[in-house]
Amino acid sequence: MTTSEYEVVVVGAGAAGIGAAVRLREHGFEDFVVLEKAASVGGTWRDNTYPGCACDVPSRLYSYTFAPNSEWSRVFARQPEILAYLTDTASRFGIMGRVRLGVEVQQARWDASAARWRLTTTSGDFTARVLIAAAGPWHTPHVPEIPGIDGFDGPVFHSSRWDHDADLTGKRVAVIGSGASAVQFVPAIAPKVAELTLFQRTPQWVLPKPDHHVPEVERRLLRNPHALALLRGGEYRSLETLGFAFRHPRLQPALRAIGVANINAAIRDRTLRRMVTPAYPVGCTRPLISNNYYPALTRPNVRVRASGLAEVRGNTVVGADGSTAAVDAIVFGTGFRILDMPVAERVYDAAGASLSDHWRGSPQAYLGTTVAGFPNLFLLLGPSLGTVTSAFVIIEAQLAYVMAALRHLRTSGAVSLQVRQQVQDAFNARVQAALPKTAYSAGGCRSYYIDANGRNSFSWPWSTKRLTTLLDRFDPDDYLVNKALASVQR
Fold first, then answer.
1. What average pLDDT is seen over the chain?
2. What domains appear along the chain, each with residue ranges and CATH number?
3. Using CB atoms within 10 A as the burial measure, which of 105, 151, 182, 264 is most buried?
């Protein structure tokens, strides 16, 4: 079998991968391919088709700066519209011809002797000078192992793999988890099911959602690029204000008052109010927004259990608190493998150690983008980049940094570069020193921010502006630059 050779291989054709492909072409890098294991592009917006699926960042901000969209039908667009936007962007910028669909990367290993990445895939072997990992953290579902679930004879599925053949109308449904997905699909399915039992291990802060249909007159106004940019800037500043409050504990009382008011406005039952009111600071878990989640919990056919799911006995689900419910279907809203991303188990250094081996349960990267010991590897939406703002803002800032690194490789005559270990360590030490002062690492909550070692490997403890400023300048002195193989050809 022949080996396909490229200057750059991008893994994943979601928002990050599509953005990487556009920027590569824009900067004169034409020798690249995007490998996507699914049958179509779109990433998490292709996979998540559950009822009620929508963005929780304003749509004008949840889009590329190079592909502004004035035609969003709502302030917070729904899944079909976001997927259509990503697909259309890939087509308009000529990216689809660079995407290889149905190709899953099984392993990528750095070959030091050739200064190239060697990839094994379901469609043959590839080599690349540069590897851009753009699979993202919201990709692989986290499904807890529940004793007895194999004996359940009804539909069982995760929200990101919604079984649309399973008609839940008139059925008794157990929902496991109360995170971002559940907050959206619970209100969507509650009116049609016979009974819905929500197993809530940890209550979430759910803030009001300033959403509305965007009328034609507003869209017409936003077709002016200056007006659209002005609104996008205002939405960015609004989210940054929220992030500022998360980073400054003295503002917590105001945030908590907003959260409690949202609960009290929808829920009269005091027991239910206590059950869904978190004891931890706002921002300690991912902040959620919804106008219909709390009202859905008050429906007569909805019951909330302040407990995780412990086991399944036949068609009876049993909570950790001993409560039981007879159900016909089980839906997991338990999130994703955010910090133990499968890519970490598939990417290896020259000595045969994986990213997972290096991280040992605590992911680390320099500026969330490069990793010591892994030359010419760039992670998009990597560790310690979690903020309240749009993922697109982070992706584009990282891509500016990646393009600067690639230009340096070309102009310097180097064949590889890797971040210095001491640079990476110093950066991560600063991040970890700053996090305890924020709500992100406050005690009293259990969130996906915290890794297997009890360390917050997800959150960015400063402003997004500080992050984008750092990513705006590539400093070769932070890297070990190898020119020894400059004469080696592909």
1. 95
2. 3-140+337-482 (3.50.50.60), 149-332 (3.50.50.60)
3. 182
